[in-house]
C-alpha cells in the first residue's frame, strides 16, 4: 500500500469529531434530556481501562465499543492461547490491575482499542471477548442485548485494517503508520460523494466486512470510527468526516450525507408497522456474511431482530417474522454453497432432488410428473461461456467468451422423458392483467420424519385448487 505517512497522530481529529457531534447533533446522534433510553441500557460488564479490570456495567460514565474480527494474526504462534472471560476468571478479574498479567495474551486489536479509549480520555470499553462470559450457559441473553450495547455506546471502534486497527503490527494510537493511499485522486478535489463511496468500497473489501457478527455491530451503532490501512474516517447519523478532506466546518452546520450516498443503513429506528421490506433489506445482506460456526447464524443477528420485534406481532421464529411466516419460508440462497457440486463444470455428477409424496388429491407426484433422469448436469461446450453474477453474488446471465456465428451453446440440466397428468396452464400471461396465486413451498422427506425445503415458487390459484389439495401436518426442518 506504500510507505507510512509522516503525519500520524489521530487523537486530535477523533477528539474534534466527537466534540463537534456532541454539540451539533443533539437529538440524532446524541440523546436529548427528553429522549427515550429504551435502547441504551448498560451492558452487564465493561473494561475499566484505567484500573485494568472488569467492572459492572452500571458504573457512571460513557463507554466505547469495539467491532473487530476475532481471528488475530499478530499472535506469535498459532498455539498461543488468546485470553477471554470465563467462569474460572470472571471473579478474579474484578480486582484492580488484574488484567495486566494477561495483556500479552490479548489480541493486539483489543490492546489498541484500550489504548485509544485512554487517549481520548474515556474510561470504559466494551469488548465481547472480555465482557461476555464465553462459557456461560446463558450467554445467549447477552447476544439478545446487542442492540442496546452498540446503540448505547458513546462511539464504536471499527477495526477494519489489515492488522485490526492498523496496517502493520507495530502501529499505535500515536503512530498508526497509515499506508500511502494508492488511489489516483487521493490528493485531488473531487465531489464529496465520490470520496465517500471510495471509503466504503475499501471497507466492503476488508475482512471485517465479510464477517457475520460485525454486520449488526455496525448497523446498531450511532457513531463509528473506521480504521483502515490508509486512513481513518468518521460516520454518525448525520455526516461523514475524515482527517484530510471531509472536515467539520466551524462556521456552519455539519453537512448531512444521505444514506444513498454511502449505501449503508443509518438512523436505524423501530418501524411503526411490520415492514417486511425493511426486514428483508437488513437480513438478506447478512445472509451473505461468513460464520466460523453455523450454529451462530441466529445469534449473530439477534440484536437486529430484537430492535425490529416491537413492530412485528408475535416476534420472530428462528429469525423469520411470524406474521409473514408463509412468505418468509420462501427465502432463496444468495448463491450456491461452496461445498455442493459445481454444476458449471463439464461432466460433474449432480444428485437431483427426489420427488416425494405430496397432497395433490392424495396422489404420488411421481405418477403425476414422472421423470427418469440421468444423474449428471453439465454445460455443453462449457469453455464458450460462463455464469455472470452481480455484486451480491446473484446469477444475472452468461457471458459469451468466444461467440461464433451459427454456434449454439446451452446448458444440459438433465436428460430423460416425462408424462404430465397435472392440470397446468397453457395460456399466455397479459402484462396488465391481475392474477391470484399461491406461494408454494416444495418439501421432501428427510428420512427422519422431518420435511426439508426443496424449492419454492408461485402457482395460480385456479390451477392449484383444480388439483384438489388437502391439508396435512408436517415438521419442517
TrEMBL record:
Highest taxon of the lineage: Eukaryota
Pfam families: HET
Domain Heterokaryon incompatibility: 63-217
Record-given protein name: HET-domain-containing protein
Organism: Paraphaeosphaeria sporulosa
